[in-house]
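DM between two lab members

TW: hey, do you still have the Two-component signal transduction system YycFG, regulatory protein YycH entry open?
JB: yeah, one sec
JB: this one, 440 aa:
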Amino acid sequence: MKLKFKLGDILLLIGTLAAVILSIILWIFIMTNNQYFSHINQTSNVTEQSHSRNRIISNLFVPTSSYGFQNGQLYNLYDAKKNLPLEFSNELKDVKYGNIEKISSSRHKYEQMLNNSAYVQLTFPNEVSVNLLTKKDVTKNDQKFRRIFISPSNFYFYLGSDKSTTIYRVGLIKADFSRLRSYARNAHGRQPVKFVRLNDSYEVFYTQTEHWRVYSYLTNSQPDSYFVTRLLGTANVTARSSKKGWTTYSLNYYTKLRAPNTELKEADFLYSRYEKSKVMSTNERLLDSVEYVHKLGLSEQDLRYFDYSNGSVSYANYIEGLPVFLSSKNPQITTRFAQDAIEIAFNNTDLQIPIPFDGQTRTLPPSETVVHNLVNAGLKKAAIQRVIVAYRVEKDHSHDNLINLIPVYYVKAYNQWRSAAEWEKYGSSGVSQNQLVKGN
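TW: and the structure you got?
JB:
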């Protein structure tokens, strides 16, 4: 018994020593390979950020309009249940891209393509880069385009730049647009339109008087503290009120957030960060603006890329195919890359719950009538850059958080957006062009 007891003690001691030695070895291995484990974690975070970024880009940069022909007539196509632009984005997910070939820069051939009944057209509100569409650098020059021509073939589609009237053919692998073509043939919403050259783009003019629906939404607005936390953080933030009814929150001299006080009855915020300017391509500006849109924490469900001009990138909510102007002349978010600062002007109103359509409509004249009235009011036709139908927000007094979306004509001139009614007012009052450019 005594010998047996000593043998057990010896085995226990050996086992304990082995466990201690193994622990020391593992500890040394972990400490000497900390960079390896950190790299795994960093790679995982980078991968997650990359997927998140691509998801946001896919949500924001979606074509917003669709066009097709029937019996020789061009129509604006819309179907609430079968959204053509979203269907196009879904069908691109498994597509691989081949060669990109420049076909033509002839204005005549470009206009022939615009009016070719064999193609379904999808357009962005303004030009974007080819690499942004493909989510990878497929071209060194990163050509710009505005519209996509879906051909009868699944082996390629065409991209068109309104500004340069250049057409590119893009080879496709594993593409199938048969369902998109079917949606286009059977779209419930059809409005006769035509393409008209304005400034440096081809804009859609409605050729008939149309009855547009009025929609209503319950809204939600985040408080100042929400945006202060997201944009400035929670430490070392100071606040000071000005005499004009604004509160400015400052992280330091270089980073600030201006918020409206309640008495102003506005919802427009301005975030600014001063930093040394750098040379950026259009694609880089578009991608950088995506990061700020996500950082704001506003609902991204209906947000879409809306405009790009003079270094500013704008995003708007799109409801039933039309953009929403949450204030008199601005969409939801505008990111401006100035010479020595980055500025983000945004509206904190989130469209939350749609109210069932109650039959209200607004009757709008043909687009040419609107342009004619603007010219008669004193606005130069050469200054008109875009003419669109969009929603103006109107407060519904039956409920604190209820708004109505009223369809009206919006016009871009002198790189500014205003309703057609506002432009008529400015034109008839004799406001100078310099004042118009400055927005006074």
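TW: got it. The first helix runs from residue 2 to 32. The longest strand covers residues 384-395.
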